[in-house]
Amino acid sequence: MVSVPVRKAAPAKLSLDTGLIPVGSRVAVAVSAGADSTALLLALHEQAATLGIGLCAAHLHHGIRGEEADGDRKFLRDLCGRLGLPLHEDQQDVPQSAASDGETLEEAARNARLRFFAGLLARGVVDVVVTAHTSDDQAETVMMKLLRGAWTEGLGGIAPTLWIDAKGCPVLQSAAVGRVARPLLASTRTDVLAFLDSRGQTWREDSSNASDAHTRNRVRRDLMPLLREFNPKLSATLGNLAGIARDEEAHWQSEIARLYQQLAVPGRPVRGGGRAVSTAPETETVAFEIERLRALDAATRRRLVRFAAFRLGASLNAQETLRVLLLAGVAPQGTPADSTVPGKPNSRIDLREGVRAERSVRELRLSRTA
Question: What is the fold of 3-248?
């Protein structure tokens, strides 16, 4: 990794969603030393007095790139020293975490950062952590989700606000210790570089950004330029799609939660009436009457099954959800048969994350053993 020199140009501004940063907030900018986070730190430093916020920076050394990463940290210490800003630091062995937890290096790094942010929020050091995701990052994320077959929530891409718990896990606001905000989503990478150029500010390039080992790098370098030949405003288009998807998902979540309360019943039926909750350790069960599922439209059935799995602490993908509906005999009309799914009552299938789906004469039951 090397510092990238820039030349001074006419003053430029970044488009910041300052509504994500309330007056009086103590704000930590998550900084990597790359162009995006360096620009966000400078932009908020310039506007801190106007916004009425207290500002600091937060940097996690991932233990991945040796001397390069050490150089990033030194660069940020020097930059924060020049700006007169506190820099909160931590260092973790992300490769070891990835190996022990069975995660990719990218997943482990992201989770490590969220745990670091959660610690700052839980200790009351800051009120909000802001990250420097741009509209180009948003477009790349939506495209990657689309290629992998995401549901609507996946097409929502990078949300402007992410609530996390004390372990750094995404949660509902009511269970959160604080939030991570993305105020730079309306700015492009071109905007970022113009901003840094106008201030004569250097930054650091991460050499791993050139590696073909990471899917995002290939999408950024090969796919996105090709797609922009068909739509020069691709980032804005995919950003709009993400916003629509998030709105759609918010509507569905409230509707499905309401239906779940009406239709879901816990445990299993027992002879003589009533229902029994499983006595197996860490096992939960929820059931639906098949005829009541059949009366719903296909979209609602899919979402209800996925919501039930979510309530059990698991996530079903599209294929697994379809297999559950096939088991219950309520898959959308015209769905091809699946030889791995029994088509009669008193059958069951096992899915990922310890989820089991069972069909009786009257019910579809989902259970999960942690």
Answer: Rossmann fold (3.40.50)
Domain 264-369 class, CATH top level:
alpha beta
Q: What is the distance between the alpha carbons of residues 321 and 304, in angstroms, rounded to a whole number? A: 10
Mean local confidence (pLDDT), 36-51 = 97
Under DSSP, is residue 196 helix (H, G, I), strand (E, B) or coil? helix
- Pairwise CA distance, residues 134 & 132, whole Å: 6
Number of CB atoms found within 10 A of residue 55's CB: 24
What pTM, to 2 d.p., does this model score? 0.82
Q: What is the mean pLDDT of the chain?
A: 89
What pLDDT score was predicted for residue 1?
A: 55
Do 202 and 3 touch, CB atoms closer than 8 A?
Answer: yes
Q: Is residue 271 within 8 Å of 318, Cβ to Cβ? A: no
> How sure is the predictor about 267, in pLDDT bands with cuts at 50, 70 and 90?
low
Contact 143, 224 (CB under 8 A): yes
Whether 260 has a pLDDT exceeding 60, the answer reads yes
What residue segments make up the domains of the chain, in order of their start? 3-248, 264-369
**Distances in whole angstroms, Cα of residue 300 to Cα of each of 191, 256, 321:** 42, 7, 12
